[in-house]
Amino acid sequence: MTDAAYLLVHEDREYLLEPGEEFGTDLGVIEVPEDVAAGDEVETHLGTVFEVRALRGPDLFNHLERTGAPMMPRDVGLVMGHTGASGGDRVLDAGTGTGILAAYLGRAGADVTSYEVDPEFAEVARANMATAGVADRVEVRTGDLTEELDALAEGEPFDALTLDTGDAPAVVERADELLAPGGRLAVYSPFVEGTREAALAAREAGFSEVETLETIQREMDFSDRGSRPSTAGVGHTGYLVFARAP
């Protein structure tokens, strides 16, 4: 993986910029050197100093170009933890969207083939993979995964299958043909109905360790009076189905 972009930070300001890029701000024009590296300092033409920092995983969620609601870091963390995707693994992904999950998988060292049905979304995702420095590990294909199942099933098996699509249950029905023995399945859905269908399809396909989780996260408030969970909301994002291939 190579760093294709860096964060330039000054106090509460941060900008995601690439080597050689010029960017105008009210603090002055930033000219990023071609040979910039993490730890360097870049000064605007008005004398404001920005610190150059390496791009980290959470920065992807904050700064990559969005084509809709991306998968939240809390959900990405569960997918990464339950699939165990790492260097050398082959991951088949569908529902690329902004590409947050695909980028995380690529930065973990996995080789990812990701399908996105919307051509414009796919183009943005490809640019995001370059920004994240994982274009050599993440291939974003324009198309519907369900139409490629026969061809993919005849090829080398994948170590993990990650789905964020409305037709995920149809893919899960054939997931055992796509995954290596013991390979991991992860399905994200914002709706209970699709989640139930995916879980049932996994069981019917002979998968083991099938479990379904609702992702809820609450922030904590600390004050002189005491500490308690925030009243801002329960922080629900979606549902995740995990399973292990036979």
Automatic annotation (TrEMBL):
Keywords for the protein's UniProt record, in alphabetical order: Methyltransferase, S-adenosyl-L-methionine, Transferase, tRNA processing
Residues spanning the membrane: none
MF terms (GO), sorted A to Z: tRNA (adenine(57)-N1)/(adenine(58)-N1)-methyltransferase activity; tRNA (adenine(58)-N1)-methyltransferase activity
Enzyme class, broadest EC rank: transferase
Domain tRNA (adenine(58)-N(1))-methyltransferase catalytic subunit TRM61 C-terminal: 74-221
PANTHER family: TRNA (ADENINE(58)-N(1))-METHYLTRANSFERASE, TRNA (ADENINE(58)-N(1))-METHYLTRANSFERASE, MITOCHONDRIAL
Stated name of the protein: tRNA (Adenine57-N1/adenine58-N1)-methyltransferase
Entries under Pfam families matching the protein: GCD14 (PF08704)
Organism taxonomic ancestry: Archaea, Methanobacteriati, Methanobacteriota, Stenosarchaea group, Halobacteria
A GO biological-process term: tRNA methylation
Source domain of life: Archaea
GO cellular component: tRNA (m1A) methyltransferase complex
EC number: 2.1.1.219, 2.1.1.220
Gene3D superfamilies with a match to the protein in the record: Vaccinia Virus protein VP39
